[in-house]
Amino acid sequence: MSTAPAAKRKPTDYKSDLKPIWCPGCGDFGVLASLYRAFAELDLDPAKTVVVSGIGCSSRLPGFVSTYGFHSLHGRPLPVAMGVKLANPDLNVIAVGGDGDGFAIGAGHFPHAARRNIDITYLVMDNEIYGLTKGQVSPTSLTDQKAPSTPWGNLETPLNTLAFAVASGASFVARGASFNTKLLTELIVQAMEHKGFSYIDAMSPCVVFNNHQEEWKELVTDVSPDHDAADKVAAFDLALKGGFKLGILYREQRATLNDKYKALVEAAKDSNVEQMLEAFNARKGAAIGKPTV
């Protein structure tokens, strides 16, 4: 007796019973819709998928998805996501957050997650402002930008997160936009299929404190089909030129931390632990000038 294959999941299958409470028109709605569609296209098992976030408007997202979720501390989605993936490599792990959460208090975690090439996807909803705490400038806010915290204009230079990601060793770097859900969905799919650390900067306007959606729509262009995403120098050049290029800037395949960790565990199984401890004690004794026992 043959059994019919299970029907592929639909985007609505990933919606939780909790309704989003973002402001009407917030770009995060577009990012969430793209995430639903990407999960459906990949037909991810909700029981084997984890969404981790930090703190902020965008970091409320795990509650709106019917997968496992972890709403962590301010700036800490990456270490939590890395721990989840190392503890259970079979899980699909995606970290989400905002530009303030990811590149202010959380900036110290980013380069280490990237260089380790842990097999997770990091989706940052970049609105160039702190929305939840009423409109302070963020690490990606433009110079001279006026906000409640900078009524005479922002004095700081914005962080180029795409160049930062390439420099830090991320093996997949891309930019999407909440108002182009088709492309953003494709980028999320490719990022999650990529083996290694994937970073997506998702332009996601804050309609209350930094509403440049119509302006951004006019300025965005696609990454040229001639761009060589395997060329790190070309990726740097594209990132440093600024502007709003949507698509994949950089992609490379190299061993992930998960692969290396698995190989280390297998190698340790064949090691002589007693011999290693004796050698350690001998070095320790020599260092302090005392005989070993």
Major sheet: 8 strands, mixed
Q: How would you state the average pLDDT, rounded?
A: 92
**Shape, per Cα inertia axes:** globular
CATH class of the largest domain: Alpha Beta
What is the C-alpha radius of gyration, as a whole number of Å?
Answer: 22 Å
Fourth-tier CATH superfamily name of the largest domain: Thiamin diphosphate (ThDP)-binding fold, Pyr/PP domains
Order of helices and strands: HEEHEHHEHEHEHEHEHH
Strand segment tally? 8
The number of helical segments is: 10
> How far is it from the N-terminal to the C-terminal residue, by CA?
69 Å
Your description of this structure?
The protein is an alpha/beta fold and 293 residues long. It folds into two domains: 244 residues, Thiamin diphosphate (ThDP)-binding fold, Pyr/PP domains (Rossmann fold, 3-Layer(aba) Sandwich), CATH 3.40.50.970; 37 residues, no CATH class. The chain is 36% helix and 15% strand. Helix 6 links the parallel strand 5 and strand 6. The longest helix is centred in the C-terminal third of the chain and has 16 residues. The radius of gyration is 22 Å and the shape is globular. The mean pLDDT is 92.
